[in-house]
Every structure is written in C-alpha cells, then in structure tokens.
Design brief:
By secondary structure, this protein is of the alpha/beta class. It has 20 helices and eleven strands. The strands form two sheets. The chain has a seven-stranded mixed β-sheet with strand order 2-3-1-4-5-7-6. The longest helix is centred in the N-terminal third of the chain and has 44 residues. It is rod-shaped, with a radius of gyration of 54 Å. It starts with 25 loop residues before the first helix and ends in a 16-residue tail after the last helix.
C-alpha cells in the first residue's frame, strides 16, 4: 500500500468562514421565542398583571442568559478553530471550489498525542491538517474542542458536517486499564457532544496500531472492515483472522515466517481491541450515547513492542508467550534498518503511522444539513405553539366570562322582589357585565377573548332586558289623619273657617307625589243612625276633596272619596275618648292603577284587567 501524498499548505487566506450564516442561529431563535412569549403575556394571558410582569421579567432574563451562553460558545468556537479553518482554506485555495463537498472530512483523535502527531507530520508533529487524495484530515488533541471543530467545519462546508471521526489507538502505549477506559470515555463523551452540535451521530473509525520488530521492508496493509452501518464487534476477530491467514499464505517463501509472525500479532491485537476498546465506546451510559463504530482496522508499524502493556498481558494470557524484557539490541537493529531505508529513498515505507485511508473509503459521506431551514422550522413551531397557547387561553377566558355573566343574571332572577337591597346589589353586577359586553360590541373583542372563541354576544340583550325590567318596590301608602272636630261642627259637613290650617299639610303631601291618586275617607262614631253616619262621613270626605282640588289646582279625577260611617272604628265607642278618636278624616296616597290598566298588566306584572278598588 502506498502512502498518501500530502498537499502543501499555502499561506492563510484573508477571508474567514467561521462567521458563515449557515450555522444554526441560536441567538435569533432565543430572541424569537422570547418575543412570542412576551406577546402572549401582553395580549392573551389570563393571569393578573402582577403575574404577567413576573413572567415577563423571567422570560427576558432567561432569553438574555441563553443569548449570553450562545455568544460565549461562538467566541469559544472561533478561538478554538479559527487558525485551523484558515489553514484548510489555504490548503484548498488552489483546488476546485467544490472540493469541500466532494472530499470526505475526517476529525482525527487518538489515545496519545504522539501517535496523532506522527500520523500528521513525521518531522515536527505540529501540523493540524493533512489533505490527501482520500480525505481532508483535521487533527484534534483536546476532547473539549471536538464539538467546536465539528460545528465550525459544518459551517465551513455550508451545512455539510464532518464525515467521520478517526480514533487512533496505540496498542503498545496502553499500560493501565483505568487510564485507558477513562480516556475512551472522555473521547466518547466528546464525540457524542460533537454529534449533537452538528445534528447527527458522527461515524467513528477505530484504527489500532501495534509495534513490531519487522525484519523485512514489507509494508503492512490495513486489516479490518468499514461500511455505512455499525460493525458487529463479535464478528470482527473471525473476519480479520481469515484475512490475516490469507495474507500470510500469499507470502513468498523468504517472507512467509515474518508474515506469519505479523498475522499472529495482529490477530492478538484485534481480539484485545474488540475486548478492551470497543465496549468502552459502544456501551450506553446515562450521560452520553454510544458512538457508532462504522469502521475498524489494525495495522503493524515499525517500533518496539512494550513488554508491560495491556496488549502484552492480554497476549500472554491468551497464548502463554511473553515478549522479551530487553529488546534494545533488536531495536537498534531496526533503527539501522530505518536509516538504510531512508538512504534508499524509502523513508515513507519505514517510518510514521499511516492514516486509515482504506477504512474511511467505506464510510458514506454526509449530506448537507442546512441550518436555516431547520431554524425556520423551529421558529414556525414556536409560532404554532404561541397560537395554540393563545387559543387555549382565549377559550378558557371566554368560558369564564360566559359563566360569570350567566351566574350574575341567574342570581338576580333568584332574589325575591321583597328583598330590594339584595336585588339592587345583584343588579349592579348585571349592569357591570352589561357595560363590559357593550364595550366589546362597540370597540371589538380584545385578543385575549378573540380567535373565534367569543360567545358572550347573545348575553347582551338578555342583560338589557333584565336591567330595563327592574321596578323598585312601591313605598307604603302615605296617609294623614285629621280630627273631624277640627274641620267640622257636630253633625255638619261644612268646613269650619279655620280648617284650612289643618289641610295645608295634606296639600303639601299631595303635591310631593304628583303621580299618585288621593283617597279621602270619612269616619264617624256609633252615635246616631248608621245610615246617617255613612252619609255624613261621605259628605265630609267630599268637602275635604273640594277644598284640596281648589287649593292645589289638581283635577278632581285624581281624588276618590269614601264614607265608612262607624264601620271602621279605631277605638272603642264606649268611651268619650274612643268616640272622639273614631270621628276622623283619613287622606291616603295610593298608586294610579289606571296606567297599568292601559298596558294590560297589573302592578305586580301579571297580564289581565286590574280592579282599582279603594274598599
């Protein structure tokens, strides 16, 4: 297998893509949602003013905090990725414009920084990118920066995020189980966070490197598998073992033993990686999702196997064979062989860690995930949520309005007319409801009651009818009682000359009630003939009527007279004082029932003829 050729890195270009508008506009979405919430509170909320103010302040503070956090994330992303993105732009400036989409982009992480550095720049180990004929490789050394890189690269490629994450494992460098598992979990969490940042799970390629003391110049190929779906970890050892056996069987006789040793070692490496590496990446945890391993491969590279590594311990437990404790002499021989190889122009074939390009080819490239349509969809969902909340609030408030007005009217109807004070209080509530409904009818229904849920309009004419039909109770009939001896002489119906003084009070009472009729009733004691007494009492009532009509200018038709004689005594006629009390004239003010007869109703509000009787 030939090593890929790295394109030269040119000077950074002056333009920057880290502020591309293709990124998800978190701050705009936060501001939009906060604006909708405030609109709902102002126009549709059923809560009190105090609660609305409290909720509004809470919404503003929450939106401000979210925008501040999003701004800090943008600043952190820019600071973490600006230099790398400029280098990528510089490296691709001389290539076709669509190279960003057509070339897979892979984020490279590893168990050790030395391993990743060796895969990128064998001399200095400082380069952050490599562009090969297979992919664009971006080196990430800090798990906390992986999500920033993924998000920035998605913006750089106009919505098409990284295609995969290459996880490089130095099998001989792992000598502590807890340290290995801790590093795997940190990177798994970082990969999960990066997937959330770009909006899809990032496929992972696990590439395992094992050192070998290679006696020949034969270059080791990659052994593994890759595809568009997750690999089956349990099937990997048998699959790779079959390919290793085929690889060893195809060797020429001089290299057959060396290939057999390599195949045996890579078989151990595969089984160790499947048992120690993949479970830590694939097991679900509460905090992070399992990564999706779409590619797995092993390769042997020049180097000294570590006798104290976890791989060596695993190989010893499996085969009973241990690596020699001191391999310095062999290592020196390998170093000399590398030097000779460089002198012969074969430096690339004998040094460094090759990137897993064959494994990446099997992973499908990602499609563009445009942030703007997604943001517009989220904004529309927020708008729909606002409409649903407004409709729910409107329906609830309309129901309360109808129930309140209906209950106020039913309460008024249920109060008896005799309880006028309670009726007036209930009527005031109906009047308040009528004013509110009238305002809605003339000025329009407010948004908090609108949206097609307003149902209180039919209650307005009912309230008007109730208010117009209220009749205050009639006050008790006013009556003035006059002593007959102060008006007439005994047995006479002619008014005495000074009797007008006694009638002035009755005249003022009549003028104060112009809408009432006047009943004048005469009474006598039981002395004398009853028929004569009745006639005398009626004549006296007529004399009082004539005087009052002349003095007030009121039509005589408003007066009615009645002579009761001695039939309605108010005291005993057995004594002189009783007989004096019974000789009297009573002036009483009563409602004019003739007005009710014209309308065909009685004073009590019942239909039919009314008999105005003063008896």
């Amino acid at each position: 297998m030939t090593h890929p050729v790295t394109h030269p890195v040119t000077h950074p270009v002056t333009h920057s893509v880290i502020h591309s508008p293709t990124g998800y506009p978190y701050r705009s979405i936060f501001a939009w949602v906060a604006t909708l919430a405030l609109v709902w509170l102002v126009l549709c909320s059923p809560w009190s003013i105090g609660w609305n103010v409290f909720a509004g302040v809470l919404v503003v503070l929450s939106a401000t905090a979210a925008i501040v956090v999003a701004t800090r994330r943008v600043i952190a992303r820019v600071g973490a990725t600006q230099q790398v993105l400029r280098k990528i732009d510089g490296a691709l400036s001389g290539l076709p414009a669509d190279i960003k989409r057509n070339t897979p982009l892979v984020l490279v992480v590893g168990t050790t920084s030395t391993l990743v550095a060796s895969a990128f720049d064998r001399e200095s180990g400082q380069e952050a990118i490599r562009v090969t004929g297979t992919a664009i490789w971006v080196r990430v050394g800090d798990p906390s920066r992986l999500a920033h890189f993924a998000d920035s690269l998605k913006r750089w490629r106009d919505g098409q995020g990284p295609d995969a994450v290459a996880y490089l494992v130095d099998a001989d460098a792992a000598n502590d189980q807890a340290t290995l598992i801790g590093g795997l979990r940190r990177w798994r969490s970082a990969i999960d966070e990066a997937g959330r940042a770009v909006g899809y799970p990032l496929p992972v390629c696990v590439a395992v490197y094992a050192n070998e003391l290679r006696p020949t110049a034969d270059e080791c190929p990659w052994f593994g598998m890759s595809g568009t779906s997750s690999v089956e970890a349990m099937a990997l050892p048998d699959l790779i073992a079959t390919r290793l056996a085929h690889y060893a069987g195809m060797a020429i006789p001089d290299e057959r033993e060396a290939r057999a040793h390599r195949a045996a070692r890579l078989d151990i490496v595969t089984c160790w990686a499947v048992a120690a590496i993949l479970p830590a990446l694939s097991d679900d945890q509460r905090s992070t999702r399992a990564v999706q391993v779409h590619a797995f491969g092993v390769i042997a590279v020049d180097g000294q196997p570590a006798a104290d590594s976890l791989l060596a311990q695993y190989g010893f437990d499996r085969t009973g064979l241990a690596l020699p404790a001191n391999t310095n002499g062999i290592a020196n021989g390998i170093a000399n062989g590398i030097a000779n190889g460089i002198a012969n122009g074969r430096a690339d074939a004998s040094a460094g860690h090759p990137l897993p390009e064959p494994l990446i080819r099997g992973i499908a490239t990602q499609q563009a995930h445009r942030a703007l349509p997604r943001a517009l969809a989220h904004g529309f969902v927020a708008l729909v949520a606002l409409f649903c909340a407004a409709a729910a609030a409107s329906a609830w408030q309309n129901q309360n309005l109808v129930e309140r007005v209906s209950n106020d009217m039913e309460r008024y109807r249920a109060i008896a007319p005799s309880m006028d004070a309670a009726r007036v209080d209930a009527l005031n509530l109906v009047k308040r409801d009528r004013e509110q409904l009238s305002t809605y009818a003339s000025n329009g229904v407010p948004p908090r009651l609108g949206l097609g849920f307003y149902r209180a309009a039919p209650l307005l004419p009912v309230a008007n009818t109730l208010i117009a039909g209220y009749q205050p109770p009639e006050s008790p009939a006013s009556m003035i009682e006059l002593n007959s001896l102060s008006l007439f002489k005994s047995g006479s119906a002619v008014l005495n000359p000074g009797s007008n003084r006694a009638l002035v009070g009755a005249l003022e009472l009549i003028k104060a009630h112009p809408a009432k009729r006047v009943l004048i009733a005469g009474h006598t004691d039981s002395v004398g003939d009853p028929r004569s007494n009745r006639s005398l009492s009626e004549a006296r009532a007529g004399s009082v009527r004539d005087w009052l009509a002349d003095a007030s200018g009121i039509s005589p038709t408003r007066f009615a007279i009645q002579g009761y004689g001695d039939t309605r005594p108010k005291a005993s006629n057995e004594t002189e004082a009783g007989r004096a009390a019974n000789r009297r004239v009573e002036i009483t003010l009563v409602p004019d029932c003739r007005d009710d007869r014209k309308n065909g109703t009685s004073p009590e509000g019942h239909e039919g003829n009314v008999a105005c009787s003063f008896n």
